[in-house]
Structures are given as structure tokens and as C-alpha cells.
Write a structure and sequence with these properties.
Length: 292
């Protein structure tokens, strides 16, 4: 059961209209790092969680993310308030109104025309929100790592948004939202490490002969050694050979006799004749045949 309190989690104070900034803020409303994506990620994980502590954590944070969505949506609405009225009531000449919506090279006219200046479930480029942003796999040792990374990415987007506005009220609200990303990262990391062991993810161990091997697959100037590929933990393979399993490195399949005959028949029918050099459409188009 959800119960909505009409007061925001953080007060929204907007100094003045700014359709361009409103459009940028849609990144945190309907974008891949935004609050709706986070809420849906944690909500669905929580419903799938059997551990009571992790379930409570996920549902708490999922619900908070919805409150953050409300804050962002409210800021977008306030920033677009003047443009919404101007557009709806046609109080300005067409050219003046269009310039006011596109001032600074922003694309806010798309949002204003399609959604009436309200917060739309799109990113700042107008791409609709999609459930593909929810990258849960149903394994907590993997999902919590993904959650930590998602909160980190959201923090970076908030930092960038803070850097493009001089509105003190918006800076303050965005600073609050950015800080909550830090708090969530800490909670998720603590929850991850209450699962012991939590690496490798899942149940199956890695193949021991390959678990601590580093293959130098990109060779040449710029090769660097560090704790990620050197030390007692690592076997460093400087020039990896194909077929690390000791086989021939080729793909093969054992087919039933009947299917093998059909495949061979198809191979014969579609075989290339390397002795042919036919005149093609490309030759005709380039005029090459005229030179012969």
C-alpha cells in the first residue's frame, strides 16, 4: 500500500522560469540514471527479495526515489510555468514565443509542444523512458553492485546539473538529491557485504585455471602493469595463444546423419566459384566495363 503525502521531501524554491534548464532536468525524471529508473529497479528487486532486511531496505529506498521523482517533476513544472501559460494562451507573437522556448539552443520547445510544459517521462533528448533501464538480474550479489554503480552515475548527473544553474533554490534541492545518492550507495554497500561470501556472484565458482589469469589482449605502446594484472594473485600472459583449453580453437557440432547430409547439400549449392569474375552493377555504375 502506498500513501502519498502532498508535501515534498525537500522544498522546491525556483527563482524564475527557465525552459532550457527544465529540459535538462528531464534527464533525472525519465532518463536512464533518473529517479523513475531507480525506483523501479529497487521496487522490483524488493518484491523478489527473500531476505527481510534487504527487502525492507529496497522498498524504503524505492519509495524514497519516487519522492525524488516528485521533486524533479515539481522543479520542471515550475521552470516551465511561464512558458506553459505563454504557449497555451498565445500571448506573444509566434516568432517571439518560439525564440523564448529555444533560447540558448535548448530543445525545450519539444517538451513544451508535446507535453504542455509538464514533466515528461523522457530524457533531455526526448527519448521515452523504457523498462530496459532496469538492469536487475535477480541475484543480490550482482544487483547490489549494480545499484551502487547506478547511484554513483546519478550523483555525477546531479553534479553536472548543479554546475549549469545559478538558481540558489534549485542548486540546494539538487544538492539534497545528490547527497541522498551517496547515502543510498553506503546502504547498498553495507547490505552487499552482509552477504558473505559475496564474490564471485551467484553459486558456481570460476574455473580455477582461469580465475586469476590476466590476458594481455591489447598489446603495444601503452601497456601498463598494476595491481589489476601483477602480483602474487595474477598469472600474466603477455602473448595469449588461441584455444586456451588446449583444443584446436575451431567451432564444431555433431549432427544426426540426415541433417549432416542436408547441410552438405546446402554447402555445395551455395559454394563460391573463385574462377569467376562477373560484370556487376557496381562495375556498370563506375564505368569500369568501358575501360576493358
Amino acid at each position: 500500500m502506498f500513501v502519498h503525502n502532498k508535501r515534498l521531501q525537500y522544498t522546491v524554491r525556483v527563482a524564475g522560469p527557465n525552459p532550457g534548464l527544465a529540459n535538462l532536468l528531464l534527464e533525472q525524471f525519465g532518463g536512464p540514471q533518473g529517479e523513475l529508473a531507480a525506483a523501479m529497479r529497487y521496487f522490483t528487486q524488493g518484491l523478489n527479495e527473500d531476505d527481510p532486511g534487504r527487502k525492507d531496505l529496497l522498498l524504503d529506498i524505492a519509495t524514497e526515489e519516487l519522492s525524488h521523482l516528485e521533486i524533479i517533476g515539481s522543479i520542471v513544472g515550475m521552470l516551465n510555468k511561464g512558458a506553459k501559460g505563454d504557449l497555451a494562451e498565445a500571448v506573444e507573437k509566434e516568432a517571439v514565443l518560439y525564440r523564448s522556448l529555444t533560447e540558448g539552443g535548448n530543445d525545450s520547445h519539444i517538451t513544451s509542444l508535446l507535453y504542455g510544459g509538464g514533466p515528461a517521462l523522457t530524457n533531455s533528448a526526448g527519448v521515452p523512458w523504457t523498462a530496459a533501464y532496469v538492469d536487475s538480474i535477480g541475484e543480490p550479489t550482482a544487483d547490489f553492485r549494480s545499484n551502487i554503480a547506478a547511484e554513483a552515475r546519478a550523483k555525477i548527473v546531479y553534479e553536472r546539473l548543479i554546475n549549469v544553474t545559478d538558481d540558489p533554490g534549485i542548486k540546494e534541492a539538487l544538492g539534497f538529491l545528490m547527497t541522498r545518492e551517496l547515502a543510498h550507495q553506503q546502504s547498498f554497500e553495507k547490505a552487499l557485504h552482509t552477504i558473505q561470501p559475496n564474490f564471485p556472484q551467484g553459486k558456481l565458482p570460476g574455473m580455477p585455471e582461469f580465475t586469476n589469469v590476466y590476458f594481455n589482449m591489447s598489446q603495444g605502446e601503452g601497456d601498463v602493469r598494476g595491481p589489476w594484472n601483477q602480483g602474487d594473485q595474477w598469472e600474466f600472459v603477455d602473448s595469449p595463444e588461441p584455444a586456451q583449453d588446449g583444443g584446436d580453437g575451431l567451432a564444431s557440432v555433431t549432427l544426426p546423419t540426415k541433417q549432416a547430409e542436408v547441410v552438405e547439400q546446402m554447402a555445395v549449392r551455395t559454394a563460391s566459384d573463385p574462377t569467376l569474375d562477373p560484370l556487376t552493377g557496381a562495375d556498370l555504375g563506375s564505368g569500369a566495363y568501358l575501360k576493358k
